[in-house]
Amino acid sequence: MTGAEPTKATPEWLALLAAFDAAYGQAADAGSAPIADHTARLRQALARVQAGPPRLSPRPAADKPVTRWLPAALAAATRGPFADMAMALLAVADRLTWEYGYASLPEALARDYAYCEILGPQGPILADDLILGLVLFAPGTHYPPHHHKGIEESYLALSGRWSQNHAASHAPGSLVFNPPATEHEITTGSAGPCLLAYGWLGDPRRLAAPGMVLS
C-alpha cells in the first residue's frame, strides 16, 4: 500500500471491477466442476469488495520495457470476446503500476514481461482475500516454469495467442485454471503481444507476500 488514506473508488475503477466480474461469468461455463467452483468463489469475493464499497489507494504509475506493447494489446482486445474489459482498461491505462514480482529476472524476460495488480493487498483497489491483475507479454516470450504456493490461479486471455505447458494453443476468450502449487510455464505466439487477466485466491497472508520464484 502507498500509506495514503484510502478513498472511495472512482467510476472508472468501478467499471473495471464490473468488467472483471462479467468476463469471469462469461468464461465460467467450461463443463468443469473445479473451474466452476473457482470462478464462483472468485466472483463471490469480488462481490464482497464491490459491496464494500471498494476502497482506492492509488499507487504511482510505473512502466516496464514490455509496456511498449500495451497499446497494441489493448487495441486487439477491444475487438475480442472481452472487449468491455479492454475498454475499461483503456480508461485507467495511464495509472497502472507495472512490475516484475521477482528479485531478479533473465534479461530477455525483464524486457518482454511485466504484471500489474488491479485489486489486492497492494491496491490500487484494496482487498485482502482476492487479487486481480494483468500480465503482459511481448510476442514470442517464454515465461519459465514457476508455481504459486497456497494460491489458486486463473488466466483470462484478452488478446494474443499463448500456450501453457505446451499443452494447447489458447485464443482470446479462453480461461485457464491452475490449482495451488501447479507448476506452469507460458509461451506466447509471435504474431502480436499477449495480454492476460489473472485472478488469485488464497489465504490473505499468502496473497500479501506470495514469494514469487522461478523454478
TrEMBL record:
Pfam families: DMSP_lyase
Coiled-coil positions: none
InterPro entries to which the protein is assigned, alphabetical: DMSP_lyase (IPR031723), RmlC-like_jellyroll (IPR014710), RmlC_Cupin_sf (IPR011051)
Domain of life: Bacteria
Keywords: Lyase
Keyword rRNA-binding applies: no
GO molecular function list: dimethylpropiothetin dethiomethylase activity
Protein name: Dimethlysulfonioproprionate lyase DddL
UniProt organism field: Paragemmobacter kunshanensis
Lineage: Bacteria, Pseudomonadati, Pseudomonadota, Alphaproteobacteria, Rhodobacterales
